[in-house]
Fold this protein.
Amino acid sequence: MNLSHIEHLGIAVKSLEESIPYYEEVLGLKCYSIEEVPSQKVKTAFFKIGQTKIELLEPTAEDSPIAKFIEKKGEGVHHVAFATDNLPEALAKAEAKGVQLIDKAPRPGAEGLEIAFLHPKSTKGVLTELCFDPNN
Ligand code: CO
């Protein structure tokens, strides 16, 4: 599979409001976008560092996957997202190598990206997202 860079790191937080000051005031990054993704029951805040983004994820409902993650593991790194120039092909290659796919086909993600997740059982414990930017 042809990956170019880490598109973003997804980080689960209880509260964007309480977390954004760390990224802005300590790390000196700038939050450039806050977006709610109702299908995932999350509110996201984005920062950019080089080609890579930090995506903070705050749950908006008790049954949000992020709420469940925080309950189980606490706040912290939730997923790693790699950029690919051909998402359907990357998924097919992963599946052919025996990787369990959470998404068999690309679906819309935040920031206009097409995304798909690989199951952490197949990726040495790291929830892995593959992203394709149709505007790139
Ligand atoms: Co993500």
